[in-house]
Design goal:
It contains two helices and eleven strands, in the order H-H-E-E-E-E-E-E-E-E-E-E-E. By secondary structure, the protein is of the alpha+beta class. It folds into two domains: about 45 residues; about 110 residues, 3-layer Sandwich (Rieske Iron-sulfur Protein). Strand 7 and strand 8 form a beta hairpin.
Amino acid sequence: MTPALSDKKAKDTSGRRDFLRKAWPVVGLVAAAEFLLFTINMLRPGKELSKSNPISTLKIIGNVEDFQVNSVTTDRVNKLFLVRQQDGGFLALSLICSHLGCSVAWDEPNTRFICPCHSSAFDKFGNVVNSPAARALDYFPVTIEAGKVKVDISRKMKRKKFDKSQVTYAL
């Protein structure tokens, strides 16, 4: 190999090395900046999509006479069960299991709600009858106005067990 050719190869390699030596800190700074922005965005509270309008969260489920006494109606759109009690009262239960958030199903023959994920079971009032769920199904406040059953889906209420005050009656 001639000395001139050897010098040219040395220059090429030193040029690439110099470039890489200067490029790596820039790449590192860009990566650090991306990580910092990602972390800040994760810690920042979510943006409110729209101002809460109480009228829009009060959903009309149906007329009082549409629901038979001692029945359970599934409303998958609003993610709830509307339970009409034996005494005529209404109770709106969340369709989401209080254990890990799976969707529960109404088991009519056994008159209970069953979670297919971990076999938790709940009675008609939402109380736990089979663990691993540790607390009752959440419920939504129900109002009855002019013969219409309305459920406030913006106010999911957590509870340990059923309480008679959670039932709404038509006047």
